[in-house]
Amino acid sequence: GSIARHCLKQLEVLDIVEKDPKGGRRITSNG
Fold it and tell me: What residues make up the domain containing 28?
């Protein structure tokens, strides 16, 4: 799980993934 979480963090840095207000994650229009 830590690896997937790390990947999601990298995507967030690239603004491809943004944190959902509900606490989840979703792909942005850039992704």
Answer: 1-31
